[in-house]
Amino acid sequence: MHVEDESVIESNAEAEAPEGSVEVEEGAEAESEADAEVGARLILKRNNVETDVVFAVNSPAIVGRFDPSVGPIDIDLGTIPEGSYVSRKHAKISEENGVWRIQDLGSSNGTFVLRDDFEKVDEAEIQDGSEVAFGNARFVFRTV
């Protein structure tokens, strides 16, 4: 983890990774039983650098912020500071026949995919290494 990331995510050495994320040691191999079940991952980016905050993606997955009035979601970004710009049901990530797609679910701040620049999308194909953003929360999408 980079020092600038540490100050944002953790207020002290005992702080834990956001709920629903998997913190991976830098340079460590991510091999475990849980990894075998995960279809893909979203790796949080800050200051244009990948962090150690990783969210598992199992198709289909709803990305958003938990709210009791809306019900459960699969990937809760309300646990990270950037989550304040993420809608309760922001986007859906799904895989069919080996093709991954991202779909905006009518979010307030948009779903974006990096091409030449970030482009706001209603629906788009994504692949390993694609950069995506939900509001201002930026991620690298990785297939396992």
Can you walk me through this structure?
The protein has a single domain, classed as Sandwich (Tumour Suppressor Smad4), CATH 2.60.200.20. The chain is 8% helix and 41% strand. It is built from 2 helices and 12 strands; from the N terminus they run αβαβββββββββββ. The chain has helices at residues 3-9, 33-37, and strands at residues 21-23, 40-46, 49-57, 61-64, 75-76, 91-96, 99-104, 111-114, 118-120, 123-126, 131-134, 137-143. The protein has a 7-stranded antiparallel beta sheet with strand order 1-3-2-12-11-8-9, with no helix packed on it. The chain starts with a helix and ends with a strand.
Tally the helices: what do you get? Answer: 2
CATH class: Mainly Beta
**Overall pLDDT, averaged?**
80
Order of helices and strands: HEHEEEEEEEEEEE
Please provide the count of β strands.
12
CATH fold assignment: Tumour Suppressor Smad4
Shape, principal axes of CA atoms: globular
Level-2 CATH architecture: Sandwich
Number of domains: 1
- How large is the share of residues in beta strands? 35-45%
**Ends apart, CA distance between termini:** 21 Å
What is the element layout, followed by pairings?
Blueprint: H1 3-9, E1 21-23, H2 33-37, E2 40-46, E3 49-57, E4 61-64, E5 75-76, E6 91-96, E7 99-104, E8 111-114, E9 118-120, E10 123-126, E11 131-134, E12 137-143
Parallel strand pairs: 4-5
Antiparallel strand pairs: 1-3, 2-3, 2-12, 4-6, 6-7, 7-10, 8-9, 8-11, 11-12
